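Quick start: read one record
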Amino acid sequence: MKIVARDIPPRAAWALEQAGVHPLLARLYAARGVRGKDELDDGLTHLLPPAGLAGITQAARLLADAVQQNQRMVIVADYDCDGATACAVGVRGLRMLGGRHVDYLVPDRITDGYGLTAPIARRVKERGADVLITVDNGIASVDGVAEAKALGLTVVVTDHHLPGPELPAADAIVNPNQPGCTFESKSIAGVGVMFYVLLALRAELRARGVFDMSSAAGPSQGERAPSGGSEPREAGSVGAPKPQPKLDPLLTLVALGTVADVVKLDANNRRLVAQGLRRIRAGQMPAGIAALFHAAGRKASAATTFDFGFALGPRINAAGRLADMTLGIECLLTDDAGRAAELAGQLDAINRERREIEGGMREQAMLMAESLFQQDEDPPPAISVFDPDFHEGVVGIVASRIKDKLHRPTFVFAASSAPGKAHELKGSGRSIPGFHLRDALDLVAKRHPAVILKFGGHAMAAGCTVAADGFEVFEKALAQVAQEWLDASTLTRRIETDGPLPAEYCRADIVDTLHREVWGQGFAPPTFSEEVQVLSQRLVGEAKNHLSIKLIHQGNPVDAIWFGHTEQLPARVLLAFRLDVNEWKGERRVQFLVEGAQV
């Protein structure tokens, strides 16, 4: 492990501080590439305009036709938190904009698999749908879209995943990562894409004379009528125009899905998240989000991105992993506080079950991974493990845990429990910086065509299905690609930090200030590093697997804890740590959360 301090451009830090940014925040923002205070403005008018998304004009026209013709629309969602929030945003938004017949269908992780398949398309048709809309999936659903079109459905694909070699023949595709799309935020989540589609749809309906601007309208920057839709159309001009609905209440769901999907928090995503957080802290949120905060024991009035990623997101994801994501979506759709509390309680119980399953699987998978190398050896360049007793709904979480500990691209596989799929293994992988997991799978598939049956994903997370008798070939092939692509530097775990923490900022109010900001993937939460003196240390927790430390930081005593670490530290050590506040009997004291140590 190597602890490395980020470069802090002095001019940028100075400029931010001169513009009124807190000195510590100025330093943190400058180290993350922020050069001016205007980049920190999270106002809705600074959002990228929808017009930059290829295909959004056509999507808006098709959906406007569906709304005005009272057509039946069915959203096909994904079974993770991004998919669930995108579905809730789509259902709520389409209904707000006049859709009278809006329904949804979410595939089952085990029996249906990922995305819009031909059987899913047939189920949508059986519901009497005229229009099929995908959220957080569809860009790789060539066969599913073809079946939907053959059944006479209008198909609108909204997605953010990387496309394959062939795009589906949908009536409209909105995906910033499709060829030819110039939208700057390539990292927008699926829920963000659906939100943008609603903005374009509202502008199209406004151009048709359905809505006017007589009410506050929420996001409007660049929300002009789509090209070709500037003239009001006869179909939308019956009666006086209605005040256009506000879409900004949906930003609470957009923020949750964006953080939970661990997409890069570029400037546009940070604005979306900041807007959602602001509304939640003010008590303006759907009943389901309020209920999830309560079930997780978190305070909505002090909501943070940490709550999205580690409290609410996992409870929604648990439904898709072990049960039915319909539970999660219904929790986000209901406006009944009692019903929301009931559903949030069910999601909390499922999440507890998920943690129990994960704990046993993680221990077994870690033993299998560590058996691949001797104690005095480095791990192989990539790790793949499989056990027939693993639960396929939890393999991704376990892969992440192994990746975190061993700092290697990792895949964990389980036997498929889908009917007729006993000959398949379902795998989920997590990667390290410098190793594009989806591209690696693509190369393995080209070198061994019969081994990988299907795959997809991103640079840092991907999934695949392999033939049961091809696991060993896959394991060796992935390790070979990693051997070719990675070097000693990349295989060494690095913790990037913001350097020393000035003693005057080691205060609870400063920690509160930091927690209110938007941090996450690609805009890392503040992590500091410096040499400290260790006064005492002991193992705590039921399993004695956490190291509690008393140390001296710049002459002052501070408590610290290193979760999941059991090895003793030397008397002086270079620590990387984040800041937290420990409350005890009304007293709030700063606590260090240790991320790593360099002896």
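The longest strand covers residues 528-540.
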